Amino acid sequence: MDLFDFEEGREGYYGQYGGAFVPEILTSTIEELKSCFKACKEDPGFWDEFEQLMQQYSGRPTPVTYLPNLSKKLGGAQIYVKREDLNHTGSHKINNVMGQGLLAKRLGKPRVIAETGAGQHGFATATMAAKFGFECKIYMGEVDVLRQRPNVFWMENLGAEVIAVKDGQRTLKDAINECMRDWVANMDTTHYVLGTACGPHPFPEIVSYFQSIIGKEANRQIQELAGRLPDRVYACVGGGSNAMGIFQGFLDDDSVELIGCEAGGSGTGIGHHAARLAYPDASVGVAQGYKTFFLQDDDGNMLDTESVAAGLDYIGISPIFPYLQEQGRVRFAAATNDEVTEALRLVMATEGLIPALESTHAFARAIVEAPEMSKDEIILVNQSGRGDKDIFTVADALDDDHWKCFIRNKAVEYGA
Amino acid sequence: MELKQFIETRKKSKSPLVMTHVVCGYPSFEDNLKELEIMDEFGVDFVELQFPFTEPAADGPLFVKANQVAIEQGVRVGDCFDFMKRVTDRFSFKVLMMGYYNTVFKMGHERFVNRLKEAGGSGYILPDLPIEEAQELHQLSLDAGLTPVILMTPTNTDQRLEQLARAAHGLVYVVARKGVTGGKTQMSDDVAQFLSRCRKFTDLPLGVGFGVSSKEDIEFIGAHGDIAIIGTAALKAWEEGGAEQLRAFFSQLEIQPN
């Protein structure tokens, strides 16, 4: 399945989804980006350059780890994990960011901007900008700034300016709007490092291209380690970049079932979750530059979303996914905030892994399904990021008294 | 075409024509009506009625706030069409729907065209709908006598301007500078040169918008284009001092009477 071999006149479309709905002022910038990316893809040395960079800078290839204790406890399928959390900056976001950094260099643009939800993409972009010598501005919803302070701290100390976006719902979607507003004014000097496989063409393709490094490695590694391909691969889906990354390694292996795990939030019902494809509440629309399933009302205005994981708390989904769902290639499920907290406890206690709350959605679903599978079946979970950044949220969810005491003492120390 | 004739008639005695902008339901429909009365009094020729959208990515801070507050106050698309009907029944200026494509997409192209027609609208401006995606909607609109207004921007190549010109009808919205709505534009040689570049590709009237706020801007557009488009500056005046301030704002523009 070559998702990016577009039909004549349907460039940037995955079935009926995708496209490039951008203001006219960006047409030439998008053209410039498309032709730069095309040249990179066709340059036989480009992927090697990217892979080497990721090897030296981010510790790739990230390993696949077998989880014997969790597998035994659940009593079903054998569980393996692709360790994107071991990347520099702690998540898969760095793959796309370093790749787009190489693009920005080729484009000759000295400034980069990015939106961020959980802060992982902003953190990665600030890191890339420091390494490549770019000026960097990160837009982040005010709500997310408040719940992801550790990442904001690192971004600022890496030299990026972090803007807390106060419009709309003050989360990821509003940060994307603000990036577009910056870009339409500064496109001559600025590359927009979009962080997920969403937005106008060619972004879904570019992001999927760089993230495909996850699946390429994982396909080889799981066969080396387990002796064969997995039966099921689980990945969390906010915009969809880590899921696109790992799924691409198995798209042509028909025996491998691919499961996208969305944010079930505090439960079913409009406004309580961010499940676009697992629940029936979303419908097709056009916003933020592309056509996909959005959580929106009858007027086409976007609904509020909710998730314990800032990185999944988003109205839309990569346009590639409704297409893959329609093709029967990817199945979608949702995990609620409570299921995620429980799954995190279990994974920490049995295996000593601390997945990000986003990635824990994939674990949560695997934990539900593994016991129903036989012991000789194999599950691969993409641990897209590490959970250290979530310490405030997790401590809250676990109602940890020692942590609260520490925070109170710190507050006293800072004269609060 | 209805709008074309209207422009030709008005242009005989007036240069430039003037287009203004109102965000439906912000601060309220009652206030919108007061704003429109003043605009009418000062001889405005066209008004864009913006249908509020949750993701107004092409708008600057003031319109972003206006969109958001209107939606929070419960303004629905149906209310905007009802309001448009009241406005077109009462005033002589022409009314264009301005908004984002999802409002139209969600409703369905045919239904949108019918409702706009019923509400007395003359056309629409959808800044996030590129011409490549607009063919079906534009054809339906033209068949119904409605004008889809497309934008030309300073970053467009000559080749792109030629494509845009071929897809244009009624008038062209010329974006005077990069960026979002609001903020000042220096009406300079660059803008004049860009307007003459647009003129090479189209004979349609050129409306100039983004950052138009002074008598000098209007004179400049009279000399180099056809229609001055005033957006944020009018809302800013209203925010600062209501009807009185808005009247003072239009008074200093010295718009020629009809």
Give the helices and strands, then pairings.
The complex is a heterodimer of chains A (416) and B (258).
Chain A: E1 13-14, E2 17-18, H1 27-42, H2 44-58, E3 64-66, H3 68-74, E4 78-83, H4 93-107, E5 111-116, H5 120-132, E6 135-141, H6 142-147, H7 149-157, E7 161-165, H8 172-186, E8 190-192, H9 203-226, E9 232-236, H10 241-247, E10 257-265, E11 283-287, E12 290-294, H11 320-326, E13 330-336, H12 337-351, H13 357-369, E14 378-383, H14 391-398, H15 401-413
Chain B: H1 2-11, E1 17-23, H2 29-41, E2 46-50, H3 61-72, H4 77-90, E3 94-98, H5 101-107, H6 109-118, E4 123-125, H7 135-143, E5 147-152, H8 158-167, E6 172-175, H9 189-201, E7 206-209, H10 215-224, E8 227-230, H11 232-253
Parallel strand pairs in B: 1-2, 1-8, 2-3, 3-4, 4-5, 5-6, 6-7, 7-8
Strand content of chain A: 15-25%
- Uncertain runs of chain A are none
The helix/strand series of chain A, from N terminus to C terminus, equals EEHHEHEHEHEHHEHEHEHEEEHEHHEHH
- The average pLDDT of chain B is 96
Q: Give me the side-by-side strand order of the main sheet of chain B.
A: 1-2-3-4-5-6-7-8
By DSSP (H or I, 4+ residues per run), the number of helices of chain B equals: 11
* CATH fold-level topology of the largest domain in chain A: Rossmann fold
**In what order do the strands lie side by side in the largest sheet of chain A?**
3-4-14-9-10-13
| Secondary structure category of chain B | alpha/beta
> Biggest β-sheet of chain B: count, sense, barrel?
8 strands, parallel, barrel
- Major beta sheet summary of chain A: 6 strands, mixed
Indicate the proportion of strand residues of chain B.
5-15%
**Mass-distribution shape of chain B:** globular
